[in-house]
# Entry
Amino acid sequence: MSEIVVMSGKATCTMGTMPADVKVTTNQTVMADGKPVATIQDSAAMANVGPFGMCNSLANPQVAAATAAALGVLTPQPCVPAPAGTWIPTKPKILIGGKPVLCSDCKMMCAYAGNISMVMPGQVKVTAS
# Structure
C-alpha cells in the first residue's frame, strides 16, 4: 500500500548522493497530516524537486567535463535535477484538481540517466489503496 506524498516529503536519485525535499506548488487546499498533498505535476527542477547533493552521472555535462579534465577520474559535480517529464502515477484515479496524487511508489526519470523515487512521503496517517 502506498502513502500519499505531502510537502516536506523526500526523494532520491540513483545518481545523487543525498535525498532532496519535495515542495508542493500545485495544491494548497487539500491537506493530509496538516500539509499540502503533492500531485504528479510537482516535478519541476528546483521549484518542486531540490538538488540531490552531488551528481555521479557521466550523462550530466558538468560531470563529464570535470571527469575529462581529471583525465578520466569520475569527478562528481553539484546536482541540479533535470526531470524528464512528470512523476509516473501509480494511483491515477485519486485526483486533486484533475491531477493524480503523488504517492510514495511513484517514479520519475532524470534526463541525466538517473531514476528519481520517493524515500519518505512526509506523512504516514493517510494512505491510498
The chain has a mean pLDDT of 94. The chain has one domain: 1-124. The helical segments are 61-69.
